Amino acid sequence: MKVFLKTYGCQMNERDSEALTGLLQEAGFIISDSPDDADAVLFNTCSVREHAEERIWSNLGQLKKKGPSLSLRINHANKKIIGVIGCMAQNYKDEIFKRAPIVDLVVGPNDLLSVPILIKNIVKEKSRALAVSTMEREQDFYVSNFRENKNHAYVVISEGCSNFCSYCVVPYVRGRLHCRNPQDILDEVKRTIELGIKDVTLLGQNVNSYKFEGIDFVKLLRMVNDMEGLKNFSFLTSHPKDVSKELFPMMRDLEKIKKSLHLPVQSGSDRILKMMNRGYAVSHYRKLAEEYRKTVGGLLSTDVIIGFPSETEEDFKKTCGLFKEIQFDSAYIFKYSSRPHTEAQNLSDSVSVEEKEKRHKILLDLQKNISKNKRCPK
Ligand code: SAH
Ligand code: SF4
Ligand code: F3S
User: Fold this and answer.
1) 147-258 and 259-378 share one CATH topology?
2) What is the mean pLDDT of each run of 10 residues along the chain (378 residues)?
3) 147-258 domain in CATH 3.30.750.210?
4) Is the CB of residue 168 below 6 angstroms from any atom belonging to ligand 2?
5) What number of other Cβ atoms are within 10 A of residue 340's Cβ?
6) What is the DSSP-derived secondary structure letter of residue 338?
7) Is the CB of 90 under 6 A from ligand 2?
8) Which ligand is nearest to the CA of 238?
9) Does the domain at residues 259-378 carry the CATH identifier 3.30.750.200?
10) What is the CATH number assigned to the segment(s) 2-131?
């Protein structure tokens, strides 16, 4: 059987798709690079903003023209199995079958280990399959040695998130923070080095909250740095409230660590940060940025959300002011999108689409200028 797998969303999803590809191959499936000649088409999906989900619904709508779900067309051989896996699967569960009857398979991010067996069952039983039960992976998922990219590898150090920022769906679709055993992490790094990959990025929604028995994030960094044969490594994503005092001196001193930090600020207004449940004030962020530049001296990038419920012109100006002050090397600027399950969903999405568009453009232009001046200073 041939499987085509398309990935949306963040690096975590990319890594999940890669690990799943390895598991599928080990189970005897052939990975296809086109949906047309595949027997199964899987979408690994993202729920972080409404726009991300709309793309998937629209893809499923396009496929619908080609016929209903396998289970409803039992007598027709040669039809494709359509699967929705990842964050949207967890977010909508069996509702996906109703909204998109063409779908045969729905599997949440923490149940991906069962995808190969579920596909085989669908073929055998001619019935749909749903697996969205687990909120924490019970077994190590990253057991396959398959790597898509031969120069760089993602290695997951923690899954899920327990921060519950008020706008964010991730804790609801990925489950609570679960830190991988450092031995499993180091084994995986070793296996990637043996494949000839010498550049690694450690992944987690909030890497700074990593803790496994006596090992915290900074200790883990030192252990990874000591791996023989590794050339360099970095990590994603840091949370301002959990960055420890030791982090920047450690980044300075470890020779293999890349001098680059992605530190999402989300807003330049204390009032909004509080409503976002981020757990820090702008002054704390400012201090971290200063300390990082003084101690490590590398690149600094950020994420920001504009148009959070009740964000005023004044709040927005504070964000612009912070951008001018900090001079990020780069920034991802997102328009607020109300998400199911989240606390902020209960607030009125008060900033109009037009106003969000306007603020987005202003901040984007501001950052473009900053980035340009940093690349080629006048
Ligand atoms: N764990 C990481 C990344 C989470 S998702 C972190 O905490 O930084 C990546 C980015 O998407 C976030 O940093 C945030 O800026 C943005 N984001 C998350 N939920 C959003 C929402 N509901 N609307 C708009 N942007 C959102
Ligand atoms: Fe979402 Fe906040 Fe967790 Fe990041 S830290 S994944 S923004 S809840
Ligand atoms: Fe990532 Fe999107 Fe899920 S950002 S964790 S794929 S909701």
Assistant:
1) yes
2) 96 98 98 92 97 95 70 56 97 96 95 96 92 83 95 97 97 96 97 97 97 97 98 98 96 97 98 98 98 97 98 98 98 98 97 98 98 84
3) yes
4) yes
5) 13
6) -
7) no
8) 1
9) yes
10) 3.40.50.12160
